[in-house]
């Protein structure tokens, strides 16, 4: 197995939670201390963590910076990509100053492309991940509350030409449903842009889903709810991956 495995922590009011299809009314709290959860992931052998500020996504500015800082203090070696509510350069700096290694940016790339391109030049393509949240093949923004008129592949093409290499793609219809990932969507993206470091997100329900993504040649996967619900066997995954591609 070659796929990179990246666990996720979603934050609301400083707690580790998961939503279903991005619905804030369908929230489940899994832990009071995200830092403790992050430490568990480190103990399991993971080196990378995907952290989402759901309050930030809703408020359109970074909110859960204290939780990010707590995670980085407890797990200083953990590589964290942080997203949710990053709408300004101040938000980017705040995330980096409090321990994030990378930031994921979606809405600004849709609504203010020139600003996003300027950030690519300032911070580099290794530190910025393009977030592409998709509903029915079209990109959604602002915490999945608004649909744009941008087709996913067209959206990606414009930024790949500007040097983007890392893309986090979430199929909204799959997120939190634990009914399997949108493998055909990801295969379409990889067929169009084979050099892309695509991170698949949404729908993972078991080890077999991850194996299917790996077989399809998807470079990386984010998983969350399936782990918290005990549906993923981490021991088996780490054994299969020989400890080489643990995010």
Automatic annotation (TrEMBL):
<keyword id="KW-0963">Cytoplasm</keyword>
<keyword id="KW-0413">Isomerase</keyword>
<dbReference type="Pfam" id="PF00977">
    <property type="entry name" value="His_biosynth"/>
</dbReference>
<comment type="pathway">
    <text>Amino-acid biosynthesis; L-histidine biosynthesis; L-histidine from 5-phospho-alpha-D-ribose 1-diphosphate: step 4/9.</text>
</comment>
<dbReference type="InterPro" id="IPR011060">
    <property type="entry name" value="RibuloseP-bd_barrel"/>
</dbReference>
<protein>
    <recommendedName>
        <fullName>1-(5-phosphoribosyl)-5-[(5-phosphoribosylamino)methylideneamino] imidazole-4-carboxamide isomerase</fullName>
        <ecNumber>5.3.1.16</ecNumber>
    </recommendedName>
</protein>
<dbReference type="InterPro" id="IPR006063">
    <property type="entry name" value="HisA_bact_arch"/>
</dbReference>
<dbReference type="GO" id="GO:0000105">
    <property type="term" value="P:L-histidine biosynthetic process"/>
</dbReference>
<dbReference type="GO" id="GO:0003949">
    <property type="term" value="F:1-(5-phosphoribosyl)-5-[(5-phosphoribosylamino)methylideneamino]imidazole-4-carboxamide isomerase activity"/>
</dbReference>
<dbReference type="GO" id="GO:0005737">
    <property type="term" value="C:cytoplasm"/>
</dbReference>
<feature type="active site" description="Proton donor">
    <location>
        <position position="133"/>
    </location>
</feature>
<dbReference type="GO" id="GO:0000162">
    <property type="term" value="P:L-tryptophan biosynthetic process"/>
</dbReference>
<comment type="similarity">
    <text>Belongs to the HisA/HisF family.</text>
</comment>
<keyword id="KW-0368">Histidine biosynthesis</keyword>
<keyword id="KW-0028">Amino-acid biosynthesis</keyword>
<feature type="active site" description="Proton acceptor">
    <location>
        <position position="10"/>
    </location>
</feature>
<dbReference type="InterPro" id="IPR044524">
    <property type="entry name" value="Isoase_HisA-like"/>
</dbReference>
<dbReference type="InterPro" id="IPR006062">
    <property type="entry name" value="His_biosynth"/>
</dbReference>
<dbReference type="InterPro" id="IPR023016">
    <property type="entry name" value="HisA/PriA"/>
</dbReference>
<dbReference type="InterPro" id="IPR013785">
    <property type="entry name" value="Aldolase_TIM"/>
</dbReference>
């Amino acid at each position: 197995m070659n796929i990179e495995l990246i666990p996720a922590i979603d934050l609301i009011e400083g707690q580790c939670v998961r939503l279903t299809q991005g619905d804030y009314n369908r929230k489940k709290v899994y832990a009071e201390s995200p830092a403790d959860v992050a430490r568990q992931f480190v103990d399991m052998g993971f080196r990378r963590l995907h952290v989402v500020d759901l309050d930030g996504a809703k408020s359109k500015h970074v909110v859960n910076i204290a939780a990010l800082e707590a995670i980085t203090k407890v797990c200083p070696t953990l590589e964290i990509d942080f997203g949710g509510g990053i709408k300004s350069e101040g938000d980017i700096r705040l995330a980096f100053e409090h321990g994030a290694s990378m930031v994921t940016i979606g809405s600004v790339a849709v609504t203010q492309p020139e600003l996003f391109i300027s950030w690519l030049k300032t911070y580099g393509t290794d530190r910025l991940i393009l977030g592409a949240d998709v509903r029915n093949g079209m990109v959604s923004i602002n915490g999945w509350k608004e649909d744009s008129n941008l087709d996913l592949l067209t959206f990606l093409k414009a930024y790949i030409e500007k040097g983007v290499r890392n893309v986090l793609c979430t199929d909204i219809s799959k997120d939190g449903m634990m009914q399997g990932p949108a493998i055909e969507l990801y295969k379409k993206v990889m067929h169009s842009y084979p050099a892309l470091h695509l991170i698949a997100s949404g729908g993972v329900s078991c080890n077999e889903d991850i194996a299917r993504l790996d077989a399809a040649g998807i470079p990386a996967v984010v998983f969350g709810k399936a782990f918290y619900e005990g549906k993923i066997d981490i021991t088996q995954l780490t054994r299969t991956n020989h400890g080489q591609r643990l995010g």
